[in-house]
Amino acid sequence: MKTLEEFENYYNKSLRTDLVNLDARRKRVVKRFLITLFAIFIPSVAIFIITGLHLGIAASVIAFIILFFFWVRDKLFVKDFKEQVINRIVYFISPDLTYDPKGHINLSEFVTSRLFLTSVDRYNGDDLVYGKIDRTEFRFSEFKAEYKQVTTDSKGRTQTTWHTIFRGIFYIADFNKEFSGSTVVLPNVFGNRFGFMKKLMGATRREKLVRLEDPDFSRQFNVYSDDQVKARYVLSTSLMQRITEFRKKHKNNVYLSFVDSKMYLGISHNKNLFEPNYLRSLVRFDVLREYFDDLVLAVGIVEDMNLNTRIWTKT
Amino acid sequence: MLIPVLIIAGVLLLWLALSYNSLVSKRNAADKAFASIDAMAKKRYDLIPNLVSTVQNYMKHEKETLTQITEMRARATSGNISEEEKIDLDQKVSRAVSGIMVAVENYPDLKASTNFMQLQGALNEVEEQLSAARRFFNAAVTDLNNAVQMFPTNIVASMFNFKTRKLFEITEQERQNVDVKTLFSS
């Protein structure tokens, strides 16, 4: 895995000079946006406050929108950003990886993971990365799944609200051991004080609670599986430690499952990753570093979980 | 006067039945866990003749260990041995197999042969599954032992003669790194 220092070198040597152009475009967008704002919007608001002419403000909003779309906006900026920044960082981390800005993991994969049993009504995702590191194939992308709730009030009006089931990075890798069935590792929100809650929370699942011997691990996670022995075959003592460490490193909620020789891992996130921020320079190392860190975090899961160790029958 | 007594007796009886049933289910779970160790151990015993025939042409100095391991296999698969003996044999075989795996380092030809590599994968696999089964057994036995020793279920347990069971312990020898020399000189 590439280190941060190597990335800094790469950044100083080639990435930085190549991004000057893109950064100039970013600056232009910001500048034009501000000019437009000052030129038409602020005076018209002032007029509105003083004289109260509704028509004036409506006209200036329309003018602003028109200008925004034909003068301010750089339609290809996001696309070029992903190609020139994210794509290159992905390639830098490993040439064996492919980046697809519009791709995402499939809904069927999300469902197969058995991590979230609520049926999904709407989903989207982007920034798919896939490939092979050493002997382990994997793919991950940003993913958001939601379900719909329709409520009807006393007057018969219906209201639809959307609730998030999962939002963050969803990661799928070929696991290094062969097995069938499913074992699910969920964050333990209650701690160990309410041991009975662990069982209760799995009540709607097909899988049964598995009590594992690692106390640190059990404090942080609840494990459910359809086979007690297989669950322990998958969750070896060393893997439990690795998962605990992984969780410490990320602080966000981590969901893992092992279904039919595949590993699924969800890291919740509230921010949209791998997107440009217009207000921050692209020729600053600390800005690019964040994209690098986020990508390394996901690609590094293979090593974090020791998936390249293939000493069992599966090759 | 009679009704409260009847109610108390009924509640007691219900509690007795529930405790008894939960103890039985815990004991059955432990039995089932032990059976899964047995199943995995059998898988491993099936691999041993294969292992011996693969390595014996190369390993001139470990003849004795190979004979020992074959004997242990014969004893384990002969049936009619107690649970304790099974556990003991299982641990001995584990040690012997891992000892052979370490000794293989001295035979580069053997180590590189595809036949051996496949076998090694299969053995690692079985060993990993065995360790999973042992851990499940320990979890089930801990559950049973807790119920047998803790108040108030211990009353029911002693009434119906439920006994605590021994856990699969990692022996002192296993905790240390495998020392090939002592293994083969013994």
SSE layout:
The complex is a heterodimer of chains A (315) and B (186).
Chain A: H1 4-51, H2 54-72, H3 77-93, E1 97-100, H4 107-112, E2 122-133, E3 136-152, E4 158-174, E5 182-187, H5 195-201, E6 208-210, H6 215-220, E7 221-225, H7 228-234, H8 237-250, E8 254-259, E9 262-268, H9 285-299, H10 301-304
Antiparallel strand pairs in A: 1-2, 2-3, 3-4, 4-9, 5-7, 5-8, 6-7, 8-9
Helix pairs in contact in A: 1-2, 1-3, 1-9, 3-9
Chain B: H1 2-55, H2 63-77, H3 83-103, H4 108-112, H5 114-149, H6 153-159, H7 172-175, H8 180-185
Describe the structure.
The complex is a heterodimer of chains A (315) and B (186). With 315 residues, chain A is an alpha+beta fold. Chain A has a domain of 205 residues. A nine-stranded antiparallel beta sheet of chain A has the order 1-2-3-4-9-8-5-7-6. Chain A is globular and about 75 Å long. The two termini of chain A are 21 Å apart. Chain B is mostly helical. Chain B has a single domain, classed as de novo design (two linked rop proteins) (Up-down Bundle). Chain B has eight helices and no strands. In chain B, helix 1 runs antiparallel to helix 5 and helix 2 packs antiparallel against helix 3. The longest helix of chain B has 54 residues. Chain B is rod-shaped and about 85 Å long. The C terminus of chain B is likely disordered.
Quaternary organization: heterodimer
Give the low-confidence spans of chain B: 172-186
What fraction, in percent, of the residue positions of chain A are helical? 40-55%
The amount of beta strand of chain A, in percent, is 15-25%
Q: Could you give a short account of the major beta sheet of chain A? A: 9 strands, antiparallel
Q: In angstroms, what separates the terminal alpha carbons of chain B?
A: 74 Å
Describe the biggest sheet of chain B? none
Shape by Cα distribution of chain A: globular
* SSE string of chain A: HHHEHEEEEHEHEHHEEHH
Broad CATH class of chain B: Mainly Alpha
Major β-sheet strand ordering of chain A: 1-2-3-4-9-8-5-7-6
